[in-house]
Amino acid sequence: QGAMYSSLPETQLPSRGDKGSHQSFKSQLVTVTLAIVAGTALGLGLVSYQHESRLLSIPLTTGSTMRSGPTFRRDMSVYASRQQKEAVDKFKQTGLRPGREARDPEANQAPYKGKSVTADSASLSVHNFDGEVTGQAEMALKVARPETAKGLVHRYLMYARNSMRAGTASTKTRGEVRGGGKKPYAQKKTGNARMGSKRTPLRPGGGVIFGPRPRDWSVDMNQKERRIAMATALQSAQDDIIVIEDLDSQFSEIKTKNMQQFLSRVGTKPAEDKILLVVSGQKRNALLSARNIDKLKINKPNSLRIVDVLGADKIVVEKSALDTIQGVFGPKAEAAAAPDAPVEEVAEPVVA
User: Fold this and answer.
1) What is the residue-averaged pLDDT of the chain?
2) Does the predicted model carry a pTM greater than 0.90?
3) Is 231 in a helix, a strand, or coil?
4) Backbone angles phi and psi of 344, in degrees to 5
5) Which region holds residue 210: left if phi is over 0, alpha if psi is between -120 and 50, else beta?
6) CA of 275: how far to CAs of 78, 157, 300, 309, 323, in Å?
7) Contacts of 201 (CB under 8 A, 6+ apart)
8) CA Rg, the chain, in Å?
9) Could you report the per-residue pLDDT of 151-167, keeping only the tens digit for each?
10) Which helix (H) or strand (E) holds 228?
């Protein structure tokens, strides 16, 4: 109050004995205080209004029609960084959000449709039992598209490898281990850390923390995808495929030496290369002659394994087995004409 009194003129200072002047002074002081408070509030209100008016933008619009009602949005571009402003400008120009790229309009006009396409025909040399070239064979399978081939074959490989896992690994927790029902020693006065069971995972003979439990590792993959993936793997290995004539009655006796010599004659190295021999039917003498060759695996065309195909350095295929592969993994024949379709008349029927 002394500071307030000192700011007033001397003529307005109240005296101790003048009660009326003292009350009028109080009323004047209250009026000045209220004026100061009102002025401060008004100034803050004006500043806040200017700030809000700068943040408010035009009403939201949808296309060319403006939404009805006083719906507004804040223009946050004042606080946006340079990268955010560039992203907003790009979105206004192209309609693409950050991280998106424009699609090529010609990409959807590819000559193939669906998930597969027929590969170009590969010409393979046919060898006889002595290793001589006796003819040519063609292989054109129904394979995956180039942009999805690698991922599809990898999925099939993971499908096969996961299916081979037994998933029987198992451990016991501290609640399943035998023993540990009694407290080893007293809680206090022993100098040791407190312990409630001998089968704690922190001690030998205790349970296992987060150990493996029996589970099913298999994954799902439909038959059409598996077939296309196998065909893609075979077609991509066309440079390593060796076609041979059928081995019927070629191995008169069971000898590993005969099989090694035969594989060497057709262009493989049995001691170094991983070889996959694909035969059709039961070739007992050939199978028994090949069982002692460490890096040689034998299979049939209708039971090929993707692991063997991808891991082989050379693939030796019988001519009849190649025909089976072409029939299973190749493009199917076109459907026959409808019964009600017009049939062309033949002037001179051909007698078979």
Assistant:
1) 81
2) no
3) helix
4) -70, 140
5) left
6) 69, 19, 14, 9, 20
7) 174, 207, 208, 209
8) 44
9) 999 999 999 999 999 99
10) helix 223-236
